[in-house]
């Protein structure tokens, strides 16, 4: 079960990275990178749970906060650049 869940996360990450490479707009690429970050958070949580290391959950929460703040900051930057062009 452990190998299956991590392999599903790996396959989903590969699909998201493919979306990063082929995304037609910058917003598609940003959302795909955010999805990869979310999949990494899931993988860290699963790994920590199955290995009996609850401190991995804290690391995953911290990574989720950094992922969220980074995505909001980049989207705000792109929206400001789009507003300047108009």
Q: Could you characterize the architecture of this molecule?
A:
The protein is mainly alpha-helical. It has one domain. 90% of the residues lie in helices and 0% in strands. It is built from 3 helices and no strands. α1 packs antiparallel against α2 and α2 runs antiparallel to α3. The longest helix is centred in the C-terminal third of the chain and has 31 residues. 5% of the residues are buried. The mean pLDDT is 89.
> Poorly predicted ranges (pLDDT <50, ≥5 residues)?
none
Radius of gyration, whole Å: 16 Å
The assembly state of the depicted protein chains is single chain
Could you tell me the strand content as a percent range?
under 5%
Structural class: mainly alpha
Which structural traits does this protein have?
mainly alpha, single chain, 3 helices, 86 residues
What secondary-structure arrangement, pairings included, does this model have?
Layout: H1 2-22, H2 26-50, H3 55-85
Helix pairs in contact: 1-2, 2-3
Summary, kept brief:
Helices cover 90% and strands 0% of the residues. The chain has 86 residues and is an all-alpha fold.
């Amino acid at each position: 079960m452990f190998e299956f869940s991590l392999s599903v996360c790996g396959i989903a990450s590969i699909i998201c990275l493919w979306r990063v490479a082929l995304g037609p707009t910058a917003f598609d690429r940003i959302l795909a990178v955010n999805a990869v970050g979310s999949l990494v958070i899931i993988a860290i949580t699963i790994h920590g749970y199955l290995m009996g290391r609850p401190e991995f959950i804290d690391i995953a929460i911290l990574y989720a906060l950094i992922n969220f703040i980074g995505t909001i900051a980049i989207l705000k930057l792109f929206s400001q650049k789009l507003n300047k062009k108009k």
